[in-house]
Amino acid sequence: MTLLMKAKEAADQVYAMIREKVEELKTKGIQPQIATILVEGDPASAYYAKAKQRIAEKLGVQFTLHDFRADVTEEEVLRLIAELNQDPKVHGIMLELPLPKQISAAEIERAISPLKDVDGVTPANKLATVTGEAGLYPATPQACIKLLKHYGYSLEGKNVTLVGRGQTVGLPLFHLLQRENATVTVCHSRTPHIASHLSHAEIAFVAVGRAEVVNKHMVHADLVVVDAGINETEDGKMVGDVATDVADHVQAISPVPGGVGTLTTAILYENLLKAVEIQLGEAVIYE
Ligand code: NAP
Asked: 155 and 109, same structural domain?
């Protein structure tokens, strides 16, 4: 019987801890605030921003949505970020991707203060993710590892195959996996025979952005699969990168929806509280 690694319980544990800290901060007259930047044009990211807003309300976190029209200029977004960086009431800044083509996501990410960078996208926090220095690490790679550990799996000394080396998930996850002492093989768009790498793997992480990039013929009964993918089918259904029937052919798998994405949101808020500590001088990171 395949273990379905749902994230709700792990996410609820994170939220319970966050609620406690929010209460504690209230006694000091502080309410954590996250500012989310959303540019019109991608219905999925608008949906995710709203979902995060509902969670913020339940946590006692102030959520401020800054939504721009699709024809916004890079300068306008940079101006807002400069203001948010300076505003002592704003503890975290979150940029919803994708952005329209006139705006460089890299330029915008570079402009965010590393101290408020709740999704670990600034150069300083990307470097910290590589070196293991204190920092705000990207949420989705952290969620991938936390979900696995929640179900009692250890990464130490394990053969891990990572499919995808993207900036958001695969690349930072590779570095976090090094610190878990996993032995990692990285597959990407130029890797022939991904199945042969999966055949040696005990654990697989898949973060590609394409439905069914891993199918039942590529896996084995002892494999544990963490699917970080989010794709929308033509009929509007959300699916991962791993074909749904893979679930019958592996030891354990994370579902989509209800897996990595669910825990990612919780970790974003965990990072927000870390950002509050950093800004209060209770924790230090490199800028
Ligand atoms: P990305 O930057 O677009 O990177 C995609 C990676 O997949 C690249 O390394 C690419 O290889 C590789 N790839 C493309 N086609 C492939 C194929 N046929 N076989 C093997 N590898 C292939 O993606 P990302 O931004 O890291 O996101 C990855 C996935 O995570 C997406 O599904 C995204 O929606 C999802 N995601 C989920 C969350 C969440 O909260 N759950 C958050 C963020 C992203 P090359 O390097 O050779 O081009």
From this structure: no
Residue 90: exposure state from Cβ atoms within 10 A (0-12, 13-18, ≥19): buried
189 within ligand 1 shell (Cβ under 6 A): yes
In a domain, 2, yes or no: no
Cβ-contact 144, 173 below 8 angstroms: yes
Residue nearest to atom 41 of ligand 1 (CA): 261
**SS3 category, 40:** coil
**80: CA distance to ligand 1 center in Å?**
29
Q: What's the pLDDT at 282?
A: 86
Alpha carbon nearest to ligand 1 atom 17, residue: 189
List pLDDT tens digits, range 99-112.
999 999 999 999 99
The whole-model pTM stands at 0.97
* Centroid of ligand 1 to alpha carbon of 165 (angstroms): 7
Buried b (16+ CB within 10 A) or exposed e, 189-206: eeeeebeebbeebbbbbb
As a whole number, mean pLDDT of residues 154-174 equals 98
Is any ligand 1 atom within 6 A of the Cβ of residue 228? Answer: yes
170 lines ligand 1 (CB under 6 A): yes
- For residue 190, the ligand 1 atom closest to its alpha carbon is 47
Residue 244 placed within a domain: yes
- H or E stretch at 84: helix 74-86
Query: What range does the domain containing 86 cover?
Result: 28-113
User: Could you read off the pLDDT of 7-58 as tens digits, one per residue?
Assistant: 999 999 999 999 999 999 999 999 999 999 999 998 889 989 999 999 999 9
The domain that holds 224 is classified in CATH as 3.40.50.720
52-96 confidence digits (pLDDT tens) = 999 999 999 999 999 999 999 999 999 999 999 999 999 999 999
145 and 240 share one domain: yes
